[in-house]
Every structure is written in C-alpha cells, then in structure tokens.
Design brief:
The complex is a heterodimer of chains A (119) and B (115). Chain A is an all-beta fold and 119 residues long. Chain A contains no helices and 11 strands. In chain A, strands 2, 4, 5, 6, 9, 10 and 11 form a 7-stranded mixed beta sheet that branches. A 4-stranded antiparallel beta sheet of chain A has the order 1-3-8-7, with no helix packed on it. Chain B has 115 residues and is mostly beta strands. Chain B has a single domain, classed as Immunoglobulin-like, CATH 2.60.40.10. Helix content of chain B is 0%, strand content 58%. Chain B contains no helices and 12 strands. The termini of chain B are far apart. In chain B, 37% of the residues are buried. The chains are: A mainly beta (119), B mainly beta (115). Chains A and B meet through strand 5, strand 9 and strand 10 of A and strand 5, strand 6 and strand 11 of B.
C-alpha cells in the first residue's frame, strides 16, 4: 500500500527554538496533505489542510504564524513549529491524499507521527 | 454540521471473544465512512471504508463493518479478537468543507484485549 513517511518520529527541543517536521509521500503524489495534533488519549485535531503550490488552510484557533506549513512539491509537506513552548508538546500526525484516488478524494494514508517535547 | 459519535470510550474484552465498536454519525448528505486503528505512538492505519455499494464492508485483520443508513451507524465488528488487536480505534466521516474534503473524527474507542 501507499506509504507516508514522517520525520522525525520524536524530537526534544528547547523552549523558544523552532522545529521542522517533514511529511513525504513515498510512492504516490499527493496534492493535499493534512496536519493533525493529538493530545494524550484524545482524538485527532485537524490543524490545517495543505495544498501543493498554494497557501495552507488553517482551522479556526490554529495560529498560522506559529505553525508554518509549506507544501512545495507533490511529495513533501513540512510543518514548522516556531518559537516552541512547552504547551506545544504533543503528537503531530500528517496524512496525504493520493492524486489519483478516484474513489472519493479521501485521505487514507497517514505518517507514523512525531512526538514533540519542548523543555 | 457533520459529527461522529463513538459510544464507548473503552471496551475491555477477553481474547477470542467477539467485539463490536459502535459508531454513529450525523449528516444530511451522502457520506463516506471510515474506521482507522492506531497502535501506541504510531500513526493511523485504515481498517476499512464505506463509499457505496454493499453495506457490509470487510477490512484488514479480520474486521468488518456494516453501514446502516436508517440508523446512521457504522459499527465495527470482529468475531474473535487477538491480543494484538489492542489499540485505539477511530471512526470518521468524510465531508466537504470549502473546496476540500476532510475527515470528521470520533473521539476514539480504546480496545483492550485481555488473555
């Protein structure tokens, strides 16, 4: 099946620094990628929808200047957490929609997630 | 607006017993429905999906789900569970928001399979 690679799988950073998380579709092209945040024992919270070659669409309440998303190619999207603080510590997950998915244009492929800890 | 309700936050069950994880949704339009599984500290893996056609959908790892339009339900079932099925299970409905179709998630059901 299709593979989405997310890197790094875990990262620890100091408060005030920035962290970049990469999401790559390895064997398919993805026009749209989604970034989620997940708190312990909770469901996924959609942060933003990233479309290749255009600006990301952020969900209400998500600071676009803090969570910078870049989707420069059909196989790569990045999420940068700028000036990270301990409250940004969380599990971040990306998912990708296959360009050729004709069964409903639905995302079905997830990365393995990134555990961010800000100290 | 669409919403997804997973009726049980936790389901304990013994190995080899049957299990049903319940999911109800609310939507005024045609929907696509999904079940995903998440193992600890990992991303999500698609178990199965309903887009159209037969209301009984078979997925990976022996799971199946039945779409019931009149009851707006999409319950997940497995006749005999294994220890390895211990995980978090999420039900989701696909809906358009602007120009993008995105998934509306339930809160998840934690399945604990005990020996």
């Amino acid at each position: 099946g299709a593979v989405v690679s997310q890197h790094p799988s875990w990262v620890i950073c100091k408060s005030g620094t920035s962290v970049k998380i990469e999401c790559r579709s390895l064997d398919f092209q993805a026009t749209t990628m989604f970034w989620y945040r997940q708190f312990p024992k909770q469901s996924l919270m959609l942060m933003a929808t990233s479309n290749e070659g255009s600006k990301a669409t952020y969900e209400q309440g998500v600071e676009k200047d803090k969570f910078l998303i870049n989707h420069a190619s059909l196989t790569l999207s990045t999420l940068t957490v700028t000036s990270a603080h301990p409250e940004d510590s969380s599990f971040y997950i990306c998912s990708a929609r296959d360009l050729w998915d004709r069964e409903g244009n639905t995302e079905a492929f997830f990365g393995q997630g990134t555990r961010l800890t800000v100290v | 607006a669409q919403s997804v309700t997973q009726l049980d936050s936790q389901v304990p069950v013994f190995e080899e017993a049957p299990v049903e994880l319940r999911c109800n949704y609310s939507s005024s339009v045609s929907v696509y429905l999904f079940w995903y599984v998440q193992y600890p500290n990992q991303g999500l893996q698609l178990l199965l999906k309903y887009l159209s056609g037969s209301t009984l959908v078979k997925g990976i790892n022996g799971f199946e789900a039945e779409f019931n339009k009149s009851q707006t339900s999409f319950h997940l079932r497995k006749p005999s569970v294994h220890i390895s099925d211990t995980a978090e299970y999420f039900c989701a409905v696909s809906a358009y928001a602007g120009n993008n179709r995105k998934l509306i998630w339930g809160l998840g059901t934690s399945l604990a399979v005990n020996p």
